[in-house]
Design goal:
This protein is α/β, with parallel strands linked by helices. Helix content is about 40%, strand content about 15%.
Amino acid sequence: MPTTTSLCLVRHGETDWNASGLTQGSTDIPLNDTGRRQASETGTLLAEDSWDALVASPLARARETAEIIGRYTGLSDITLDPRLVERSFGLAEGMNADERKQAFPDKIIPGAEAWDAVRARALAAIETIRGEYAGKRVIVVSHGGAILNILAEVTGDALGPGKLVLENAGASLIEHDGEWRLRWWNLTLKKWSEPWGYVKQEAK
């Protein structure tokens, strides 16, 4: 029988730039207090299961989210993978949506990373993790753009950029037993407490 490897993809908690609607990209912005609370809530949720390893983007907001989750799940060692960083939005970083549209009406942003490149490196990262932790359960803390591109690949573009908004500290579970499958997505402790939280239970 194929070995099942499970990866829980977690978006980082909120930052001040998230709260203000500013484009973050590769700019290294730390969590705010709300983001730390969100990370703690997701840590509480994930502590219901057992996990073998913790991997994160090296950007501060993802790394701190991973550190907080690690306190709840008993994982103190964090492997940092730069392929998990957010897409670089070039000259648009620090702008809000209106400013971005006004500055770049054709949506061509100087210095921005191509989405195909984001998907390629994010997929390479999860394949490396799958190889190193075959048959294990791994928490992977990353960013909205990177995670959405992974979900797009796994779901045949049913979910992905423009089709799903990932919540800060939202968790999504993918599994590989010969091919990647999405089990559940965008869960937070609040959602798990709501009636539709049974989705996670049914997916086990």
